[in-house]
Every structure is written in C-alpha cells, then in structure tokens.
Amino acid sequence: MVDWITTDGLTDYTEALAFMERRVAGIIDGSADECIWLLEHPPLYTAGTSAKPADLIDPDRFPVHEARRGGEYTYHGPGQRVIYVMLDVGKRGHDLRRFVQDLEAWVIATLDSFNIKGEIREGRVGVWVQRPEKPAQPSGAPAEDKIAAIGIRLRKWVSFHGISINVEPDLSHFAGIVPCGISDHGVTSLVDLGLPVGMEDLDVALRGAFEKAFGGLAPTGK
Hints:
Structural class: alpha/beta
Shape: globular
Number of helices: 3
Distance between the termini: 13 Å
Largest sheet: 9 strands, mixed
Radius of gyration: 17 Å
C-alpha cells in the first residue's frame, strides 16, 4: 500500500526535504510505507546535480536551493502541483530507466483525462505538448512547450523528489532560469492551454492514472 498525502497551502522547501529524508529512511528500514505527497511551494528555484551556473539567469529573483536530485534548474511555485514520489524502486526490478518511464507514463495518462496529448522526447526528460498555434521550430516541426518536469534521486533504491505539473503558475517566473537546461522550447500550463482546471481536478486525475502506470499499487490516505 502507498500512502497518498495532500498538503494545502504552501510548503517550505527545506521542510519538504526534511520530511522526504525521514520518510525514505523509514521505507528503507521497513518502519514506514511508501508515499506520494502532493503539495505546492512558494516561488523558488532548485538546482539538480547537472545544473550549470550560466542557466541561473536571475539568481536574486527567488531563493535557490540545492536539490541533490537528477537534472538541472527548475522552478517551483504557487499554481504548480509538486508530486514527491517515495517508492521502493528495488522491489520493482532495480531499473531506474523503467521507473522514469513509468513516471512519464503516469503524467501522460493524467493529461489524457483532460484531452491533452503529452509526449516525451529523446534526450529531454519530462513531458511536452505541441503548440501548433505558435511559430514552428527551425526544423519545421511544431513548437513544443514543457508542461511537466521530472527529477528523482535514489537512496538504496528508494526514490524521492519526483514530478511537477504546471496547473496555473505564473509562467513569467520561469524566466529567471533556463528550465532544465533547454533554451529553445517554452513552458506551458493547463490553464495556459485554455483549460479551466484547478488543483483538485488534477489530483483526481493523478489518482485515477496511478494504478495504470504502476500496476496495482493502491493509494491510501487523504
């Protein structure tokens, strides 16, 4: 069984890191159940283990936190659903690549419930949507914007950190960084795509898609 926790309001980032550290330690020693935690943060930037200093364009705009997860710079803030995923990857085959693919599939299935076609791209972790109404890429392919970021860390094959999905954040806040090190594509949100979707709507969709993506892991809790 997987505990499913939703926290209202804005959660301090350092407090979130401390919670994940405790919970992952408990999962490792068998004293705690696996956990998925849904929350929002105040505006901040996080730096993953591959973050490049030059990609922090405006270092004084918001607090910057070393996340110690994979990936580069990301933004978190109000209107963005952060999903911290604390699962035992070891008992699911010790396959990190497959686990990331399962996370991507979970996001794509969630977006599908709103008739949004989320897609993945080779060499670009996360989930993307095509924007045919925008100018095409230099290659002639349709423009693409990122709607969900993924970055995880493993400790003894237990995961933490996870996913962020843009519901209705202030998209201008992404301008202080090069999101995930990718400068030739933009970012979008459910509301930016014209959908009157709230955080609760997304949470319901996440629950509905969870078992499909992870094969029989029943969420519990509120």
